[in-house]
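Hi Q.,

Before the meeting this afternoon, I wanted you to have the S-adenosylmethionine prediction in hand. No need to reply - just skim if you have a minute. The sequence and ligand are here:
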Amino acid sequence: MLTDYSEIRKIHKKKFSEQKRAWCQFFSDEALATFMASFIKLNKEENQTIRILDAGAGDAILAYAAVQRCLDLGYKNIEVCLYEIDKDLIKLIDSNFKFILKKLSKAKTRLKYHIFNKDFLNFDPQQINSFDIAIINPPFKKTRSSKQDTVAQNEVLQSCEQKINKTSLYTNHYVDFMSLCLDYLNHSGQLISITPRSFTSGAYFKNFRNKLLKESNLEAMHLFSSRKSIFKSNSIYQENIICKFIKGVKQNSLISLSCSADMDFNKSFTQKKLPNKLLIKSFVNDNFIFIPENNAQAKAIKELQKFEDGFDNLALSINTGPVVPFRAKGLLSKVKHKNSIPLLGLNNVEMLAVNWSEYNKNDWAILPNTQEKLKLVKKSSIVLLRRFAPKDSPKRIIAAVINPEDFNSDFLGIENHLNLISKNDREFTKYQAYGLAAFLNSSLVDNYFRALSGSTQINKNELLTLRLPSLKQLSQLGKKLLKKDEGFNQNIIDEFLGCL
Ligand SMILES: C[S@@+](CC[C@H](N)C(=O)[O-])C[C@H]1O[C@@H](n2cnc3c(N)ncnc32)[C@H](O)[C@@H]1O
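Predicted structure with the ligand bound:
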């Protein structure tokens, strides 16, 4: 048996040069490789050949673990294809596989391997529909801007996908790898990947998610609850997730969701099966994958379904604040003058309240007589929402209401770090605005967002998925809160929302 990794784990000791960084050579450790391989399940006859793909192979640790797993499951005919762009690693992969062959020489096992020292994303039509297993830890780096991406994607997707000889359709290499692996798998072939979590919700990954969820069954996901990087050589913080997809098979009604603190999979390991209806949600030509890390998050996804309204049918629009501070240099000042127009930014938005004062020397204002150079917003009961939450902040969403009585000027500057929520037909009443801001500040919505996205950014496309109480209910909530003399806090908001 191959269980000891030490022989093959002779990762080249070369200096971590810029090129290595560009290729994202962050290697999986042995425990991770074994754990990922444990997701492999096969229902072919034992004498049939199992074809394994390791794309971005590094020193071949994942292929090695997958071979071991297939042997454990009783399969004796195995063929492995390894793609690695770095020619320095090719010798290592070769010697590792020679070592495996030697180890297996006495067993009645037939193992073949093919190493491709080339860019995996160079499409090879011969590999289409040919693998039983793809096991990958792909490089993650941006490939192009989102705008180019959408144009390029649409063009390529419209043409016959199989004719292209370079597959780089999405904004990040890791999703290109996942997508091509899916193409290379045969019917009911399985893709086991460790990647950043970003593809499960971000707008840039919409087309990829649609393809993935249309063409495969999401069978299992594994999360790491520790916020530290799980790749020792990678100081960059990434929230990583292991997923298993099965190609060409209808989505299971239950999806397995497991979690461990880190790579010690025996410690604090939890696992449960959750309904696909809870984890995969379609919303206006998009599909989102929710990953509730705890019961409160799972409950929030479910509870929000009881509300029947949304931004669309309540005629609410979400816009980014129009003032970009670095483009408005020379027009802004911390010294306030008579008739200065307040500029509201992240720091002015607290739970329910906008705090800006002409006496606060940190608050910004727009210089008098320059307002025509900037797009200002007419003062009304608008809801403001921070677009970014500070890392490790206890709250993901912080929303406040502009109280028109607090400001002398008729117009306000709103920074692009804030989102504005306003009503399309007529202005919010004060109660509606406070009700909506309170709802957005609730623990329910916070938990929903944590399950939806690993990012601390609050994106418009994610906000639009929210179900909302009716305007009448929001108004009741706002009224109740404003009547409360001792002010607002999280408990009061949650308690009042629970009574709706
Ligand atoms: C994150 S490492 C993972 C290595 C190995 N699979 C593991 O889990 O330890 C990604 C690997 O992909 C290789 N790589 C990067 N871009 C590639 C490309 N376009 N085609 C093939 N290999 C690539 C890198 O050199 C690196 O070895």
